[in-house]
TrEMBL record:
Protein name as catalogued: S-acyltransferase
Classification via PROSITE patterns: DHHC
Any single GO CC term annotated in Swiss-Prot or TrEMBL for this entry: Golgi apparatus
One MF term in the entry's GO annotations: protein-cysteine S-palmitoyltransferase activity
Length: 349
């Protein structure tokens, strides 16, 4: 008798699991190592060179130790947020084994030949259907051929992880995970705290360089004696443009209750934003509401497939076109937000 397998062992998505399904990552989880190096290498350089020298340059030892302590605490905070963003279920919608039978229709124009020469219509599932939100808003939801379900409102299928994710924002290669309903808060805090860390390291490195200039009375001599300060200032200045700009962009998205995916994919569509509840309520929804529990228990034992035959549905050319466009947009949103924005502007022109 075969040993029963757990859900994470037979998971159909491209996710990677650790510690027997307790931690879930995206398929590009190795990129987290690069992110860790980008954070830890400058911090170690700062503490071992700049902060250590500031212990003797500031007026009191207490201030010098405070500078080093703040740098270390900010770094730990950033790393914890990176872990909470990367290693948790972002809001994956469990797949169905079969299409929803109540929505299956039969296409008489396309049929398959069965025994005896009879023609049997091919079962199909409508591409979209309308659902009511909050008892007042009617929206169209799309059917996902991969997950065999109608995606909930604001849900989208990530072509990188191969999962439907609730309130899908984008797939972030820097954290190796989808950003969705259950980890968006931590992602935003990770980005903003990284920007604050860049500002702090830049300011303290500039302070150390100033002390060197005052001591030697010459800028070039000070740079020669403290090259780490100049390198850290240039490094933080460069990355502050990235994380700072990203933080400002997501502040705008939160204030209007949009996701990155909605902003880029539906930017050309005019009309009132369906989910905008006002700036204050939008921020409260992101930061002050309880995070929903995961809809997946990856450590439970997987259920065996039902004995009834599966319903085979036909993928239409329109669905295949939508899927290809979705794959392209997912990768562009995660890799370069500026690139997809420029592409959309060219299409509009």
């Amino acid at each position: 008798m075969a040993k029963p397998q757990r859900v994470y062992q037979v998971w159909k998505g491209r996710n990677k699991f650790m510690f027997n399904g307790r931690l879930i990552f995206g398929p590009d989880a190795k990129s987290i190592v690069v992110t860790l190096l980008l954070i830890l290498v400058p911090i170690v350089t700062f503490c071992s060179n700049v902060a250590r020298n500031l212990l003797h340059e500031v007026s009191t030892y207490t201030t010098g130790y405070a500078i080093m302590g703040v740098a270390i605490m900010l770094t730990v905070y950033v790393l914890v947020l990176l872990f909470l963003t990367s290693a948790r279920d972002p809001g994956i919608v469990p797949r169905n084994l079969h299409p929803p039978e109540e929505d299956v229709t039969y296409d008489s124009s396309a049929s398959i030949e069965t025994g005896g020469g009879t023609q049997t219509p091919i079962p199909r599932v409508p591409r979209t259907k309308e659902v009511l939100i909050d008892g007042r808003i009617v929206v169209k939801v799309k059917y996902c051929d991969t997950c065999k379900l109608y995606r909930p409102p604001r849900c989208s299928h990530c072509s990188v992880c191969d999962n439907c994710v609730e309130r899908f924002d984008h797939h972030c290669p820097w954290v190796g995970q989808c950003i969705g309903q259950r980890n968006y808060r931590y992602f935003f805090l990770f980005v903003t705290s990284s920007a604050l860390l860049c500002i702090f390291i830049f300011a303290m490195s500039a302070l150390h360089l100033k002390y060197q200039i005052d001591y030697y009375g010459n800028v070039w001599k000070a740079i020669k004696e403290s090259p780490a300060s100049v390198i850290l200032m240039a490094y933080c200045f460069f990355f502050l443009w990235f994380v700072g700009g990203l933080a400002c962009f997501h502040l705008y998205l939160i204030s209007t209750n949009q996701t990155t995916y909605e902003n880029f994919r539906y930017r050309r569509e005019d009309g009132v934003r369906l989910y905008d509840r006002g700036c204050l309520n939008n921020f409260l929804e992101v930061f002050c509401t309880k995070i929903k529990p995961s809809r997946n228990n990856f450590r439970t034992y997987a259920q065996e497939n039902e004995s009834r035959p599966r319903t085979h549905t036909r993928t239409t050319p329109e669905a295949e076109t939508d899927r290809r466009a979705k794959v392209e947009d997912d990768r562009e949103i995660g890799g370069d937000l500026l690139k997809i924005s420029k592409r959309r502007d060219v299409e509009e022109a």
